[in-house]
Amino acid sequence: MADADLDVVIRQLARQLHTGLMTRAKERRDRFNSLAAKGKGKGKETGERFKMMAKATMEQAAAAAKRLQMSADNVADSYARAMRLAASTPVAVKVEKKAKEEKPAKKTKAKKAKAKKTK
How many domains in the chain? Predict the structure, then answer.
């Protein structure tokens, strides 16, 4: 996976998240359905409420999974497009300027004073 392009990795991770999200949603739906089956003895309203919650859970999870997948696809496409653009853009080669002839070092005050004393 070290050699894979990041857009492929992004799509793979999104698939894993989608699968995990839908698995959890199905578990929760099944839990609500089992509570609905148990709740029938307590009243029809309780069972219907749990069934509605189970249905809403799946609808919300499907919508969230769709948004997640769409976002991941957009990010992966954007990354791939940016890499293609970067690969096709010519690189500007810097031309090295010729080194200017070095100027003689400026005399410091100490050197100037020493030069005056020796004269």
Answer: 1
Establish if 34 belongs to a structural domain. yes
The answer to whether residue 12 is domain-embedded is yes
Provide the pLDDT confidence category of residue 92 given band limits of 50, 70 and 90. confident
Whole-angstrom Cα distance, residue 100 to residue 76?
Answer: 49
Annotate 62-113 with DSSP letters as a single string: HHHHHHHHHHHHHHHHHHHHHHHHHHHSPPPPPPPPPPPPPPPPPPPHHHHH
| Domain region containing 10 | 6-84
| List of residues 6+ apart from 68 with CB closer than 8 A | 14, 17, 18, 21
Of these ranges, 37-46, 49-58, 84-93, 103-112, the one predicted with the greatest mean pLDDT is: 49-58
Compute the distance between CA of residue 50 and CA of residue 70 in angstroms, rounded to an integer: 30
Look at residues 62, 71, 72, 68 and name the one whose alpha carbon lies nearest to residue 22.
Answer: 62
